[in-house]
C-alpha cells in the first residue's frame, strides 16, 4: 500500500462518506498542557471510521463479484460499515459476529439489512467464514486487506489537509487497518509526525505481537473495548506498526471509561471505550509533547449504547 492507493481511495469513496471535522479543543489543551485537536470520526457514516474501508473495498469489486454477495466478521463497527455500504450499493451481505457483541451493534447491523450469524467467539466467527466463501461470497476482512487499509487511510489525508502543522497523532489500534492506513498517508507526506498507538488491557493483540515479534492469537477478548477486540493482528499491520509508530500504549478499561466521561462532559460527544482510550493514553504520553506541539486525538467511533455506559460506570 502506497500514498497513491490512499489518494485513489479518497476519490473513489468521496461521495459515499462524510468528511469529518478536526477541531481545536481548549479543554483538552489545558488538560494536557499542549495544543490538542480532535478528529471527530465518530460522526462518520455508521458512527465509526470503518465505512471508509468498506466502501473502498466494495467499489473496487466488479459487478459480477458483488452479485455473489459478501461476508464479513466483526464484533461491531466493521459489521455496521459492511452492512451499510452493501445496502447502499445493493449487495447481499452476511455478517458473522461473536455472541458477546453488544446488542446495539447487532441491532444496527440488522437494521442496515444484513443477515447476522452469531457464533460463540470471535475465533469461531472467523472459522465460520470458510462456509460462506465456499458458497461464492467474497470475504471482506476487517483489517488485513490493502483496499480496506487504503480506505481507512483517507482519514490521515484529512488530518494533514486540515492541520498541516500536525506534530503528533494518537489513535486506537485493533487489528491495525486504521493505524497503518493513517501511518502511510501521513508519513509519506510528513515523516516528522509522531504516531502513538493505543490499546486496552484484554484487547491488546498489537502490543503482544510487538513484544513477541510476530502475530499472536488472543484466546479471549476481556476488555470492554470490544471494537478493539481483534483476535490477532496481521504480518502486514505488525510490520507497518513496527516501522511507523513510536509506541503502543496499553491503558486499562477504568482509564478508558474515565476518559469517556470527561469527553462526554467537556466535548459533548459520546465515544466508545475504544476511542476514549486515546485520551487516557495521551495523559500518559504528555511528557512527549511540548507547549508548541499540535497533537491530534482521533475519536474513531461512537457506537456506545446508554445501557452500556451505565454498565461501565456501575458494573
Report on the architecture of this protein.
This protein has 315 residues and is α/β, with parallel strands linked by helices. The protein folds into 2 domains: 3-49 and 145-313, Rossmann fold (3-Layer(aba) Sandwich); 51-139, 3-Layer(aba) Sandwich (Rossmann fold). It is built from 14 helices and 10 strands. The strands form 2 sheets. Strands 1-2-10-7-8-9 form a 6-stranded mixed beta sheet, with helices on both faces. It has a 4-stranded parallel beta sheet with strand order 5-4-3-6. Helix 5 links the parallel strand 3 and strand 4 (93-98). Helix 3 packs across helix 5 (77-89) and helix 3 (50-60) crosses helix 8 (146-162). It is globular and about 55 Å long. The model has no long low-confidence stretch (mean pLDDT 95).
Characterize this entry briefly.
By secondary structure, this protein is of the alpha/beta class.
Look at the helices and sheets and give the structural class.
Answer: alpha/beta
**Corresponding CATH architecture of the largest domain:** 3-Layer(aba) Sandwich
* Shape field: globular
Count of discrete domains: 2
Q: Strand arrangement, largest sheet?
A: 1-2-10-7-8-9
Mean pLDDT: 95
Fold blueprint:
Blueprint: H1 3-13, E1 22-24, H2 26-32, E2 35-40, H3 50-60, H4 63-67, E3 70-73, H5 77-89, E4 93-98, H6 103-111, E5 115-119, H7 122-134, E6 138-139, H8 146-162, E7 168-172, H9 177-187, E8 194-200, H10 205-212, H11 235-244, E9 245-251, H12 253-266, H13 273-285, E10 294-299, H14 306-313
Parallel strand pairs: 2-10, 3-4, 3-6, 4-5, 7-8, 7-10, 8-9
Antiparallel strand pairs: 1-2
